[in-house]
């Protein structure tokens, strides 16, 4: 069916949504929440930009249907488009029509249900789930089923490796001419603002460290939230390259970079569920690191009451598994189990944590001793991995740099 387009000026924030007149939806066979596929053919010139050349390109978007129950929202033979759909279809100003077809559940949904029932998934099945999630073919509730399936049934190491590779390949991969170092934390502990201290120390030691970070998932604030108090964290890939060429270090929000976009989609589903399944936790960290060609990584594994790993034994089991999977995907990793039964330092929340980190950087004698000790221990591991300090002397070297 052909429909006239209407830009609604609305954003869902998570999924592609369209609005149809009730009668049009009936004729199409679509109910609220069903999928439709929108086809849009537009002309491009020889340079691939919108023009009047006879060469044509097609754009396709899968969207979820909402129905208009009152007049004025959309008219008959008209389709209301949310901003996400408009941006994906890239209309020229004079284009007014799209073709719409009813779209059935993708095969990847059957694979999700296999995981819900506890089966092991193969490479093609995992790739199909990740590709369909990235391309908007799967609905958030279906992605949520995948997350819950992993939370309940877990995944084998082979599945986590395949998941990491599929998530990495869902977007662009940045490559550099030198060894890339990074630090990450399994999170879950409030006040853990160590990255804001570690990155400057590592840069001072001569390491190349493009630190990508997440926003909060299960804690009051993520590294990106804290650093954004002080400076922007959202950059395009080209801007990131420019910054790194000059500075050789930085703290960036991974969600703004088109690297491993599948990870951002999964995180957006995990957050309202307050879930962070271990297989996804591992794959999420590693795919972001692989998307920036990280080859040397220190992983902070906070252990203690209220964290993701209540006991040291829990933390050890995770660390051994993470290290092995990291090795299989080409990353040399050292895991450091840290005590986290209480917040690091004295501040919790983005603004207060940013201030506390700055205080330590400006005058270590006035800063938090627990923040300094943890930051320098972690930075020291990277410094030792880079051969800048003898084994066992990295933390002391980091303190001197601070």
Task: Record the SSE blueprint.
Layout: E1 2-7, E2 17-21, H1 22-28, E3 35-43, E4 56-68, E5 78-81, H2 83-89, E6 97-103, H3 107-116, H4 123-134, H5 140-153, H6 157-168, E7 181-185, H7 195-204, E8 209-213, H8 223-228, H9 237-247, E9 249-253, H10 261-273, H11 278-291, E10 296-303, H12 312-328, E11 332-339, H13 350-362, H14 369-385, H15 394-401
Parallel strand pairs: 1-5, 2-4, 7-10, 8-9, 10-11
Antiparallel strand pairs: 1-6, 2-5, 3-4, 3-6
Helix pairs in contact: 3-4, 3-5, 4-6, 4-10, 5-10, 6-11, 7-14, 14-15
Write the CATH architecture name of the largest domain: 3-Layer(aba) Sandwich
Strand order of the largest sheet: 1-5-2-4-3-6
Q: How many strands?
A: 11
Helix proportion range: 40-55%
What is the CATH C level class of the largest domain, in words?
Answer: Alpha Beta
C-alpha Rg (nearest Å): 24 Å
Overall form: elongated
Describe the structure.
By secondary structure, the protein is of the alpha/beta class. It has 3 domains: 102 residues, Barwin-like endoglucanases, CATH 2.40.40.20; 48 residues, Transferase, Pyrimidine Nucleoside Phosphorylase, Chain C (Transferase, Pyrimidine Nucleoside Phosphorylase, Chain A, domain 3, Up-down Bundle); 207 residues, Pyrimidine Nucleoside Phosphorylase, Chain A, domain 2. The strands form 3 sheets. It has a 6-stranded mixed barrel. A 3-stranded parallel sheet has the order 7-10-11, with helices on both faces. Helix 3 packs parallel to helix 5 and helix 14 packs across helix 15. The mean pLDDT is 89.
Notable characteristics:
single chain; alpha/beta; Barwin-like endoglucanases; Transferase, Pyrimidine Nucleoside Phosphorylase, Chain A, domain 3; six-stranded mixed barrel; three-stranded parallel β-sheet; 11 strands
